Structure formats: C-alpha cells, structure tokens
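anyone seen this seq b4? input:
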Amino acid sequence: MVLAVGALLFLAVERTMVGTGNPNYVPAAILLGASVIPAAFLAFVDGRRLPYSVPFELVAGTAFFGGVVGTVVAGLLEYDTIRHLGGLPMLGVGVIEEASKLIAPLALLPFLRVAGRTVTRADGLLLGVACGAGFAALETMGYAFVTLLHSGGSITDTVDTLALRGVLSPAGHMAWTGIAAGALYAAAASGWQRRRVLQFGLSFAAAVVLHTLWDGIGTPLAYGVLAVASLGLLWLTAHRTLRTQEQS
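predicted toks r here
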C-alpha cells in the first residue's frame, strides 16, 4: 500500500512537472522519488511477525534523525579524512558510513533501558533498517540534485537516478544497517557477553565489506549478486530472531 500510494503521488508530481515545465515541482519530485521505496521497505519490515517492542513513532523518528545525523557525520568525517590524507579508499568510506548509521540506534539503547523496554535483536534490526532508510533517502536526494545540475536540468536523467537508487536502497544501506544494528542490540540484550560482541563485530565487518564492494564494483551483475547477499543476510538475521523467540 505504501509503495502503491507513493508511486502514484510521485507519478502525479512528475507528470505535472513535465507537462507544465514548472520547476517548483522539482523538490517534491526529488523528495518523493528518494523516499517512496525506502518508506515502503521499512513498512514491510515493520509488518513482519518479529518481537518488536519499539513504537512506530520511535521508528519513524529514527529514520529521520538517524538519517540526518548519519549523513552529516559521515560527510564531515569523509571530508576531514580526504583533507588530511589527500584521499579516501572505498574501505574507508564503508567504515565511516556504516559506523555513522549506527549512532542513532546506539544512542537509543540507554533511553530504551530507562523506559523499561526489553531490548531485542528484532528492535535493532528494525531501527537499523529505519536509520538506513533515512540515510539512503537523503543521499539519493543529493545525488538527484547533483544530476539535475550537471545534466543542465534534465528531468529524464534525474528521474533515472531516483529510480535506480530507490530500487537498490533496500539491498544497500537499509539491509547493511539492519544487519549490524540487529547484532548490536543482541549484544546489548545479552549484557555485552563476549560471544555476542564478537558476533556484532563480524556483522559490522560484513556490512562494511558489502558496502565497499558495492561502491567499488559498478556492474549490473555485481549489484545483483551483492543485493542477494545483503538481503539474504538481513533475512537470516530476521529468521534467527524469530527462531530465538519461538524457543524462549
């Protein structure tokens, strides 16, 4: 439903913009084009039968604030690194962006504890996907705006950028942060047991590797393989959460 309604709204704005030639519709088109698929995938994950304990209002807030904080921190760190080192390898981008997207889920942990909520892997997965959704949407808006400028105002090129990045966003930032944040919350729920902390480290490393490969290999086949791997790991995280719930 979210995807259908969002797609119709985007199509209405885009067709009106093209038909009238009015540039006032450009911001709305970019906003909708960048947000519809991330919002739809977040709603899909939220609708799964997992032991979530966080309200949707908190999830939506995490998507917004986590996305803003993540993009700002990542942008500043990447800029400072490039300025001091003269360059930044793809692995560095992966580490910085994946760590930046975990700021909001990590910051929420003590507040959830104070509120008396039981922290679960499922909550981490959902909040991670939400933060990844906000990050992906804001990043796509930036890419679309740059495309619009560099193409001399080409609506076709801008829409192509929005469509491609929108379709790939669930298998990118949303999946990677969901994987890492799920493991982070599992470690917190265990009282930071060494085994759980190690599993979080491995999950974070997997997210970084997937991110690095995604940025460094630009072929359609590579994107397809990495998308399957990313979504597969996210599904395994959700399946493990559900299995743990059923056994408890």
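The chain is about 85% helix and 0% strand. Residues 94 and 211 are 5 Å apart (CA to CA). kinda curious what u guys think
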